Amino acid sequence: MTKQPQAILEEQNKIFGYSERGIINSLIFNIGEDKNLLREFIGLIKLPYPIDVGEPKKYTILLEQSFSRFGDADLIIIIHYENKEDKKVLFFEGKVKTYKKNWNIETEFGKYIEPINSEHKIRPKNYWSNLFSQLYLKKSLIDNWIEINEKGGVKLLESERDRKIGENKIVLKAFKKLNGCKQNYYIGLIPTLEENIKKFKGKTDFDLHFLSWETVHKFCKDNKLKKVLKMFKYNDGQIY
Predict the structure, then answer these.
(1) How far is CA 233 from the centre of its chain?
(2) Do 99 and 237 contact (CB within 8 A), yes or no?
(3) Interatomic CA distance for residues 164 and 175, integer angstroms
């Protein structure tokens, strides 16, 4: 007896990924080897201004990469050009609203900036899980690359011990790939709608970009990325 199409579909293996990393991983495994789609994806980043990709020669992508005490990165895209000195790196940190909760860009910025402006400048225990704090650590990694490479670490705050890169060979391999990136971008992939991101007036001492999950979801629909859309459906109510 010939099986009906629906029965065949029900027998197929199914893969699901949880929350922001599940979707990011699915997205990259679907578009990571397509230069045009990658360029289009980066082109979604328009706030506060677009990132000029130009004509890349190739991309290097790192997923869920650890940098020891500088934190993990949800996604890193290194853009290579014919002229090796033109290398760019994009750091992405993803945040979601989580089920039955909310994520507010103004509130999260307040948690980041308040200790900086306080008299004693003491960071609370969960400070480094904040979006802005995580991106600050990635900027510090880039800005202090030479010192970290030579000495193994750097002191960022007087109240803290040195932040070290450690001796893990995979971490060091990824760290070396960041050498020579002269243009660096730090991107928050967030549940805030584009119209509300435009209203955000918070200022940091380094440039930040923002990309909404809403925009990424539309990109997946427009390009018929069925596997990624299944991840959005699986995480319905969790992302944005």
Answers:
(1) 21
(2) yes
(3) 12
Q: What is the pTM of this model?
A: 0.93
Token pair belonging to 108: 């999260």
State how far the Cα of 123 lies from the Cα of 206, in Å rounded to an integer. 19
Calpha distance 75→6 (Å, rounded): 36
Token representation of residue 112? 């980041």
Nearest Cα residue to 111 out of 134, 96, 127: 127
Per-residue pLDDT of the chain (240 residues; tens, 9 = 90+): 555 555 555 678 999 999 999 999 999 999 999 999 999 999 999 999 999 999 999 999 999 999 999 999 999 999 999 998 899 999 999 999 987 788 999 999 999 999 999 888 889 989 999 999 999 999 999 999 999 999 999 999 987 899 999 999 999 999 999 999 889 999 999 999 999 999 999 999 999 999 999 999 999 999 999 999 999 999 999 999
Q: Where are the beta strands (DSSP E) in 18-161?
A: 58-66, 72-80, 88-94, 153-154
Query: Residue 17: CB partners within 8 Å, gap ≥ 6?
Result: 23, 25, 26, 231, 234
Instruction: Classify the phi-psi angles of 64: left when phi > 0, otherwise alpha if psi is within -120 to 50, otherwise beta.
Output: left
Task: Indicate the residue type of 141.
Answer: L
- In degrees rounded to 5, what are phi and psi of residue 163? -90, 120
DSSP label at residue 47: B
Distance of CA 112 to CAs 54, 98, 123, 190, 194, Å? 33, 20, 9, 16, 21
